[in-house]
Amino acid sequence: MSLADSPARQEGSPRGRPRSEAVERSIIEGAIKLLEDGVPLAEISIERLARTAGVGKATIYRRWSGKEELFVDVMRATEPPDTELPGTSMRDDLIALLEPLRQRGLASRSSALLHNVYAQIKSSPKIWAAYQAIVIEPRRLTTFEVLRRGQRDGELRDDVDIEVINDLFVGPMLVRAVMRPDAELPEDLAEQIVDTVLAGLRPDRP
Amino acid sequence: MSLADSPARQEGSPRGRPRSEAVERSIIEGAIKLLEDGVPLAEISIERLARTAGVGKATIYRRWSGKEELFVDVMRATEPPDTELPGTSMRDDLIALLEPLRQRGLASRSSALLHNVYAQIKSSPKIWAAYQAIVIEPRRLTTFEVLRRGQRDGELRDDVDIEVINDLFVGPMLVRAVMRPDAELPEDLAEQIVDTVLAGLRPDRP
């Protein structure tokens, strides 16, 4: 997968108006192209971004407060789209929430470039923190909602700390997708993790 | 915890003879001191290490093939000691295997320095790969042994892929200890993870 093929951002930035979406997209695509061409993040200035997208610097500053904010949108553009939750059961919702992590793992395996982009973003504490707050944290909150609903509906134990429960589902997928780049990511991994953690690893008694 | 207080390496390097252990220790402690003083990894040469420890360069090269190999031993010196497995049950052994990860998480929380050392080591792909192969991989193999024994003894399901089982136990601890530096690491976390994954998260039927 090439970064340029990545799904486009799903929502407009709060500063953008609908009619300027095409401009925003061309700025973000320009940023992705620079990274694809191997330009280090440190050498990508607002001026260079403006030149690449064929717009004025003011056009960029009207939409983003600076490079950090812009690159969070770049990261968002490389993310697999958030799947809609089926809402049929907690189990199905959890699988839908884990699947994008597997997709992201697959994407960074097939693209050395995407892998390098993540590494560069992580090396900038400001952009990484913004990415965590804007992209990761909302997903985490959604997962907590799904888990609490599961507890209310009797699908989930309520005697274990909800943060621990969250990590029991998310941890195994993250470790495979992000921390161990050689680990396999079979198609049914999200399902396997959710079903096994729900059922437990003790053998069935006869 | 200061790096200098870290547990010393537990085994001699294959190149070292017992009588030279004190020399090796002083070289490793010198390396740790340089990192503690904020000297970037890139600026620490064998020459500087020799000067710091008060030995000749040849003394270092007799023990390590170069900087990479030496810094794997430095990393090892900052690791919590591998606990001996109690061997009473798979459950107890798994808890003993997860606990050092929690300890490492606690150590890098209390020491910004240790945190920086990890970050520097990770930024060197050669040292990081050596660390994975020499420190992490043996632990992983021990865990697989414990899991297989659990399957033979009827403590663990045998219808789930053993690598997935491994990640169900290790993933939640790694995510908390390493990936989310703000996550809590309560004293009974290893126990909570192992017992909950074994029992499963479905509510007990009445």
Describe this entry's structure for a reader.
Two copies of one chain form a homodimer. Chain A has nine helices and no strands. Chain A folds into two domains: 3-66, Homeodomain-like (Arc Repressor Mutant, subunit A, Orthogonal Bundle), CATH 1.10.10.60; 90-199, Orthogonal Bundle (Tetracycline Repressor, domain 2), CATH 1.10.357. The first copy, chain A, has helices at residues 21-36, 46-53, 57-63, 67-78, 90-110, 112-122, 125-152, 162-179, 189-199. Residues 1-13 of chain A have low confidence and may be disordered. Chain A binds chain B through residues 123, 154-158, 160-161, 163-165, 167-168, 170-176, 178-179, 183-184, 189, 192-193, 196-204, and chain B through 123, 154-158, 160-161, 163-165, 167-168, 170-176, 178-179, 183-184, 189, 192-193, 196-204.
What spatial form of chain A do the alpha-carbon principal axes imply?
elongated
| The CATH architecture of the largest domain in chain A | Orthogonal Bundle
Please, what is the average pLDDT of chain A?
84
**Gyration radius over CA of chain A:** 19 Å
The CATH superfamily of the largest domain in chain A is known as Tetracycline Repressor, domain 2
Give the oligomeric state of the chains in this entry, treating copies of one chain as homo and distinct chains as hetero.
homodimer
User: Helical region count of chain A?
Assistant: 9
Uncertain segments of chain A are 1-13
> CATH first level of the largest domain in chain A: which class?
Mainly Alpha
* Helix and strand composition category of chain A: mainly alpha
How much helix, percentage-wise, in residues of chain A? 55-70%
The name of the CATH topology of the largest domain in chain A is Tetracycline Repressor, domain 2
Largest sheet of chain A: none
Please tell me the total number of domains of chain A: 2
The tally of beta strands of chain A, per DSSP, is 0
InterPro entries (chains A, B): Homeodomain-like_sf (IPR009057), HTH-type_TetR-like_transc_reg (IPR050109), HTH_TetR (IPR001647), Tet_transcr_reg_TetR-rel_C_sf (IPR036271), TetR_C (IPR011075)
Keywords (chains A, B): DNA-binding, Transcription, Transcription regulation
DNA-binding region (chains A, B): 45-64
Pfam families (chains A, B): TetR_C_11, TetR_N
